[in-house]
Design goal:
- The complex is a heterodimer of chains A (about 220) and B (about 120).
- Chain A has eight helices and eight strands.
- Chain A is globular and about 60 Å long.
- Chain A has a seven-stranded parallel beta sheet, sandwiched between helices.
- Chain A has one domain: P-loop containing nucleotide triphosphate hydrolases (Rossmann fold).
- Chain A starts with a strand and ends with a helix.
- By secondary structure, chain A is α/β, with parallel strands linked by helices.
- With about 120 residues, chain B is an alpha+beta fold.
- In chain B, about 25% of the residues lie in helices and about 35% in strands.
- Chain B contains two helices and six strands.
- A three-stranded mixed beta sheet of chain B has the order 2-1-6, with no helix packed on it. A three-stranded antiparallel beta sheet of chain B has the order 4-3-5, with no helix packed on it.
- Chain B is elongated.
- Chain B starts with a helix and ends with a strand.
- The chains are: A alpha/beta (about 220), B alpha+beta (about 120).
Chain lengths: ~220, ~120
């Protein structure tokens, strides 16, 4: 005997993600999910972004890491409200889920925020699969990675609304073909805006900030 | 990398779907539809599923996984095609707005009970 079920196996997370979206809409907070591989410079990008946006725009950050509060400590120095999610002290989940964001957002307090940025766990695979109730997604790739990462991890670049190509200040010292990297991103996601910048020097930062301000 | 979590959700949904009035139900198969672009590795999912279904009605269940192709539609010119590689650019109009019709499924369609 066959029993019909017809369900998305991740439906529980999707339901929780929709609840999060309603919660954030009620608080008038825009939520950005920032994803990348480990070491692409998400935290550095965020530090500079927060310094430029605040205090005109009130920003809160939820940082996901498997272990340590290093990133949260760095971000707290900008004056933004920051809370850290650790999935496990000895190697836990490789992505954040909607229920984790619900708990962290309530802990952080969202009443006075305009923008909530979620720095997801460094991983180009799993975070792409899990809706956390965000309004937009941005993926960060750095020039110390390969130009072909977008076609190796297509889902991540396909589900993102914008991309950052970080560490462009290092281009003179590398054999990285930035034009090819951008072309690969646009092959996987035609029309996606790509911001080539350096979070360290601030080069190319203004178009990214402008895009972010327009989202709010 | 997250197949264990998916296996746990799958087991929860499947057990929930079993008729309450059935005595000692045994499931022969779970019929899944997994999109080619979803980041689920079938053999890894099967491995996790086998571990967590010991001593449950799903212990002998087989995972029948249908792979769903990536189908893309260009809203600008209306062309629809099956993508074999991760190229989402419309072959006709190049700059068209495209959307995915299928390829991201992580679905359970049905389960089959043993006779």
């Amino acid at each position: 005997m066959e029993i019909k079920i017809r369900k998305n196996i991740l439906e529980k997370n999707l339901t929780e993600a929709d609840k999060n979206r309603n919660f954030f809409r009620g608080k008038n907070v825009f939520v950005l999910n920032m994803m990348s591989s480990p070491g692409s410079g998400k935290t550095q990008t965020l530090c500079r972004t927060l310094a430029q946006l605040m205090p005109d725009i009130q920003v809160g950050v939820i940082v996901g890491d498997i272990c340590t509060t290093n990133d949260a400590d760095r971000l707290a120095k900008t004056g933004a409200k920051v809370t850290q999610i650790n999935t496990d002290q000895f190697g836990g989940d490789c992505h954040l889920t909607a229920p984790m964001i619900d708990t962290a957002a309530r802990k952080l307090g969202c009443d006075d925020l305009d923008l909530l940025i979620v720095e997801n766990i460094g991983n180009l695979v799993c975070p792409a699969e899990f809706d956390i109730g965000e309004n937009a997604r941005v993926v960060v790739l750095s020039v110390t990675e390969g130009e072909d990462k977008p076609v190796k991890y297509p889902l991540m670049f396909q589900v993102s609304d914008a991309a950052i190509l970080n560490k462009v200040d290092l281009l003179p010292y590398l054999e990285f073909d930035a034009a090819l990297a951008v072309e690969n991103m646009k092959t996987v996601h035609p029309g996606m805006p790509v911001f080539e910048l350096s979070a360290k020097t601030g080069q190319g930062f203004e178009p990214w900030l402008e895009w972010l301000r327009q989202q709010l | 990398m997250h197949e264990m979590g998916i296996a746990q959700e799958l087991v929860r949904i499947a057990l929930d779907a079993l008729p309450r009035d059935l005595k000692d139900p045994k499931v022969a198969s779970l019929n899944l539809r997994i999109g080619k672009l979803s980041s689920v590795v079938p053999h890894s999912l099967t491995f996790c599923f086998e571990i967590i279904t010991k001593d449950t009605p799903l212990e002998q269940a087989r995972l029948d996984i249908e792979t769903v192709p990536v189908v893309i539609r260009c809203d600008t010119c209306g062309r629809q095609w099956e993508a074999e590689t991760p190229v989402f650019r419309c072959p006709d109009c190049e700059n068209g707005q495209v959307r995915m019709i299928s390829g991201r499924e992580i679905d359970i369609d049905s389960l089959t009970l043993m006779e």
